[in-house]
Design goal:
The chain is of the alpha/beta class. The protein has one domain: 3-Layer(aba) Sandwich (Glycerol-3-phosphate (1)-acyltransferase), CATH 3.40.1130.10. 47% of the residues lie in helices and 16% in strands. It contains eight helices and seven strands, in the order ααββαβαβαβαβαβα. α1 packs antiparallel against α2 and α2 crosses α3.
């Protein structure tokens, strides 16, 4: 029997409480592990193996992952994905078989627990109000990749409300060029239906599909052309998933 509107509202309120407590608890534990071990890859793997699966199960999401075998995960890459929902981060953490870093918008640095965790993991926040500071942080992101990290970027710059792939901003692709790393296009489908981009915490069970494409070589590429090539690949992968 279908749930009523008020039943869904009550259920989503419980899910919100679970999400906040689960996230705060795992971040606290991850920071303690980092404090003791001084090894960032351990808390990142905790996010992939514990935190993300818990939130996906709590939302009723079924994760389908395709194309992982197209990528040599022994090498660092820059992943570029379309962005439909905040649950995209959980799906990517869970799907990628190596510790994953993110290039995040500056606003997330002020979110309790999340900002502290991201800073401790060495993730980069993009300051969009200052071109000079944004350039400096992009260079820091390139150094992170050069050091061996796999970095995920949402080059649309925001979440898509209708699921269509928005134009890709080319600035993030300079990270791949400066690091000499290949770009891996990733298509995300279905996450916007699981966790809606609305003013309320609206969660519905559903399937989230992640499709990884063939890496794009960044050597001697133009960042505008690379951005367009990556966007075209993501659109094609979304069609493949459908």
């Amino acid at each position: 029997m279908a749930l009523s509107r008020w039943s869904w509202a009550a259920f989503n309120a419980l899910q919100l409480v679970f999400t906040l407590l689960w996230t705060a608890g795992w971040i606290t534990l991850a920071l303690l592990v980092l404090l003791v071990t001084r090894r960032r890859h351990l808390p990142l793997r905790m996010a992939a193996r514990c935190w993300a699966p818990g939130l996906l199960r709590g939302s009723g999401a079924r994760l389908v992952v395709r194309g992982l075998d197209r990528v040599d995960w022994s090498r660092p890459h820059v992943l570029v994905a379309n962005h439909q929902s905040m649950i995209d981060i959980c799906a990517l953490f869970r799907a990628v078989p190596v510790p994953l870093q993110f290039l995040l918008k500056q606003e997330l640095s002020r979110v309790p627990f999340v900002g502290a965790y991201a800073r401790a993991m060495g993730m980069i926040f993009v300051e969009r109000s200052s071109a000079r500071e944004a350039t400096r942080r992009m260079r820091s992101a390139a150094e992170l990749v050069k050091a061996g990290a796999t970095l995920c970027v949402f080059p649309e710059g925001t979440r898509s409300r209708d699921g269509e792939v928005l134009p890709f901003k080319s600035g993030a692709f300079q990270v791949a060029l400066d690091a000499g790393a290949d770009v891996v296009p990733v298509a995300i489908e279905g996450s916007g239906k699981v966790l809606s981009l609305s003013g309320m915490f609206r969660v519905r069970p559903g399937t989230i599909t992640l499709t990884f494409g063939t890496p794009l070589h960044s050597a001697q590429a133009d960042r505008q052309a690379l951005a367009q090539q990556a966007r075209d690949s993501v659109i094609a992968l979304k069609r493949e998933a459908a």
